[in-house]
Design brief:
By secondary structure, this protein is an alpha/beta fold. The chain is built from eight helices and seven strands; from the N terminus they run E-H-E-H-E-H-E-H-E-H-E-H-H-H-E. The protein has helices spanning 13-24, 36-46, 58-72, 95-122, 144-164, 185-188, 194-204, 213-223, and strands at 4-8, 28-33, 49-52, 77-80, 126-131, 169-176, 235-238. A seven-stranded parallel beta sheet has the order 3-2-1-4-5-6-7, with helices on both faces. 46% of the residues are buried.
Length: 246
């Protein structure tokens, strides 16, 4: 039986690649993104139901989850993939930068989880994937709003896993490292741009390259599958070894 899967944050990048993979394996999808043109195009291409959703808007997020469950006849899997990358130190980043980072990188995931749990419970269990980052597990220069909120996203995934594991609801965090999507542009600027950053990759990443959106998307598909049926509260890191000590 086809799984009923919600994906939030999929007009571009990892979410886009992962949604295509989920559709290819036979999942029925409801897709949400603030990029209406992008999500509409993806949905038309893979036969999914699109929704235009602003992750800063709590009511819109709740309505998206309800609408997705209605369109699909319930939910089995949920992938909350929204995020924003805002750089700076505690000296240079503004309170508004921290507030926006928290709203999208943490609060939006919490709202989606809270709205989705009743539907997963009604299905007899299911799985949630929250996209965090390997920045939750290491420190990097001048990216405080991002790193702090990604650590909170990982903590959120573990907390929800703890609270709802007894009901058969698994929750894991996908923690990508350097993935070749425009999402990483703010961080690349710390190195003087993408091309200068690529020159530094062999020094930063033991595997000597950055990852693709498809590689990260495959791991989200794994977490949202029976192949990961005994995994919950886990940080699945895909960063080419960047997190390795020393």
């Amino acid at each position: 039986m086809a799984k009923r899967t919600l994906v939030l944050g999929c007009a571009t990048g990892i979410g886009n690649a992962g949604a295509r993979l989920l559709a290819a394996r036979g999942d029925r999808l409801a897709l949400g993104d603030i990029n209406g043109q992008g999500v509409d195009a993806l949905a038309a291409e893979i036969g999914a139901t699109p929704f235009h959703v602003d992750a800063m808007d709590t009511a819109a997020l709740q309505a998206f989850v309800a609408g997705a469950a209605e369109a699909l006849g319930g939910l089995d899997y949920v992938w909350s993939n929204v995020g924003v990358q805002i750089g700076g130190s505690v000296e240079t980043a503004s309170p508004a930068d921290f507030d926006r980072s928290f709203a999208i990188n943490v609060r939006a995931h919490a709202v989606v989880c809270g709205a989705a749990v009743p539907h997963l419970r009604a299905a007899g269990g299911g799985a949630i994937c929250i996209t965090a980052s390997n920045s939750a597990l290491l420190s990097e220069p001048k990216i405080a709003p991002y790193a702090v909120t990604k650590a909170a996203a990982l903590a959120l995934a573990r907390q929800v896993a703890r609270d709802y594991g007894p009901e058969g609801i698994r929750v894991n965090a996908l923690c990508p490292g350097w993935i070749d999507t425009p999402f990483n542009t703010p961080a690349w600027e710390n190195f003087g741009g993408r091309e200068r950053f690529l020159e530094e990759v062999p020094r930063l990443v033991p595997l000597g390259r950055i990852g693709s959106a498809e590689e990260a998307g495959q791991l989200a598909c794994f977490l949202l599958s029976d192949d990961a049926s005994y995994m919950t509260g886990h940080a699945l890191v895909a960063d080419g070894g960047e997190c390795l000590p020393g």
